[in-house]
Amino acid sequence: MSADFVVFTDGASKGNPGPGGWGVVIAFSLGLSAEGLDEKVIEIGGKADHTTNNRMELTAAIKALEKVNQLSESSKPQALSPKLILYSDSSYLINGITKWVHGWKKNGWRTATKKDVENQDLWEKLAELTTGFLIEWKRVAGHADTPGNARADEIASAFAEGAAPKLFLGSRSDYKINVNEIGTGKNSQKSGSRNRGVAYSYVSMVNKEILTHKTWKECEARVKGKRGARYKKSFSQEDERCIIEDFSK
User: Fold this and answer.
1) What is the CA radius of gyration of the chain?
2) How many CB atoms lie within 10 A of CB 172?
3) Which of 5, 18, 126, 207 could join 28 via S-S bond, C-beta 3.0 to 4.6 A?
4) DSSP of 92-156, one letter per residue?
5) Domains and CATH numbers, the chain
6) What's the pTM?
7) In 3-state terms, what secondary structure has residue 10?
8) Residue 49 assigned as binding residue
9) In 3D, which of 1, 49, 48, 50 has the Cα closest to residue 23?
10) Residues 158-202: pLDDT tens digits?
């Protein structure tokens, strides 16, 4: 999909929960100027005193859509329904907004195991903001070879650490980062990124009850011979959370 806006978002917290920050990079075109296509880049970010990484990931996406909505009002007339590609390294965000949120809303913001959906306030706000946009949600590997994502993380981390990063606003030609470069993830070094050789945990569900296990032996003992049982290996804390959310749908 060709896009009017290309967006990179990231969130961070120091302590999880702890001080947090969010960062956004938006590349867009406002139409034709005397010199041709007026291509811009804008960076935004912010902080929270006590929060979690997932809340910051959701906040970054919310702030991005709010800003895009503001920018699109002054954009070219044909962009009445702005086309947007949003890149994030958060499986929680991408899976939640493209898969889980529909079931949550249908079930009155309860999971399949009858638990309240975490961060419901932010999910509701994000879902509301998506109306009126044509959005393609794409996950990229954290801190790999996607410069826009790496920059969004720098902004988020700086705010989480109490700094005030200098945020860019200007022509894309003056921006030092190539927002068109989307990495494959082969060089990812983000802490918590998946290591396919080592399991972080195992998640099992029997009779709709979800448990986590540190060893496969423990997980196997629970699911073996149980009709309808589900289980899956996770490779990070975020991966574990996503599996639990997926099982809870």
Assistant:
1) 20
2) 17
3) 5
4) HHHHIIIIIHHHHHHTTSB-TTSPBPTTHHHHHHHHHHTTT-EEEEEE--TTSS-HHHHHHHHHH
5) 5-174 (3.30.420.10), 201-248 (no CATH)
6) 0.77
7) strand
8) no
9) 48
10) 999 999 999 999 999 899 999 988 886 654 444 334 444 578 889
136: left (phi over 0), alpha (psi -120 to 50) or beta: beta
How far is the C-alpha of 39 from the C-alpha of 6, rounded, in Å? 11
pLDDT surpassing 80 at residue 157: yes
Query: What residues are labeled active site?
Result: 10-11, 57, 89, 143, 153
Q: Does the annotation list 89 as a binding residue?
A: yes
Around Cβ 69, how many Cβ atoms within 10 Å? 14
Tokens of 110: 């309860």
Is 57 marked as a binding-site residue? yes
Q: Binning pLDDT at 50, 70 and 90, where does residue 25 land?
A: very high
Peptide bond into 17 cis (omega under 30): yes
Distance, in Å, from the CA atom of 23 to the CA atom of 148, rounded to the nearest integer, reads 10
Whether residue 10 is annotated as binding a ligand: the answer is yes
